[in-house]
């Protein structure tokens, strides 16, 4: 028994060889169009001439034909079978099938054009990406050049200012020197911020993952601000929770940078009152801990709109802020990016005329092996290893040489100055040195070109430690200097203490070896 639903999708009729309908065998599809003893060609004109030509007892299939019933078109497939006395005509209603096929074909066509459009878009994106990469490379080259050109004179300004401060000065000149120092340090901050932002944007900022002490970072902040903070109207507080792990793994330089930027920002916008730095534990597990750094102040505060934009680049909440507070508006943007890079989060809460609170949440792994203490013991130095040492210095900048001369003279070193790499090379051929300091960019023979000849030195200078003095202080630059033979790098601008510590560290290793 055939289902009634199926009956409506087909009809089978029997005709004679001339196409006259003799019997409706089965089915109900457009049944009213087939009348006994009438011609099937009325409904199926495409069968005319076909029935007589059919071979006997061989099935024949015709696909994709069209018939009309009650002004409605139907797509049909027809199976024909010719017997000795009649022709069996089986008509299948394929209207829905063909409709789906048409839709499928249309979709396939749409997919083809969509694919072609995507391919074209991908080619365009590739082209734009190449343009952006070239632009980033050009920007990086420009920033590297700018860094070098700015840091060299900046090194001179800051160090000569430091030297002037040690002279007997009148109160008026002391104030002038103080303002000069502040401006020089502000310029250094701006240069560092621009370069840091560039590294983050280029994806070249790599964070250290070393054992560090958060208590030491806070203690260092306290000592530095106690020494440098002169505004008696603002009181500074530094508090550390007792349950902070003794040592964790992280990047102490970047954490110090984040906290310094936030503290400096609070000091800038607090004419009177307090700036408080607190560290506490949010959540602690066996091997990891989540730390909250909270910097709050009693300053002028912000509106919700201002607070929502505070971490954007070049953002200053008032037009005059950049002039009054001396900044490019990059510090907090860099804080946001650094904290994000450390898998942390930074947010701000503020009320106008009440104050602002910055909340920095950073996860750390706990140093359970006390590797920090082992590292601290190894790095701790005692004594002056510079005194009496024979040091060669090559730098084409006369002002830089005078700064280095002042430091080495104070440390009682024996030193020889040369103005380029050629003079330094000639000096090393004549005598041996305990340490060689080379500026990277020098005329005639650069520091890089000279260090590559180190293995060809006949005397003991082949084993002498070489130190690069350079304003090119990106991670890539420093790694490249180590790779070509330098034992250490002193980035410009440097302070006398940084310079002395670096030389003591290098010379202490020479003594031990």
TrEMBL record:
Keyword Coiled coil included in the entry's annotation: yes
Catalytic activity annotation: ATP + protein L-histidine = ADP + protein N-phospho-L-histidine
Highest taxon in the source lineage: Bacteria
Protein EC: 2.7.13.3
Keyword Kinase: no
Modification 4-aspartylphosphate occurs at: 439
Enzyme superclass (EC): transferase
The protein's name: histidine kinase
Organism annotation: Polaribacter porphyrae
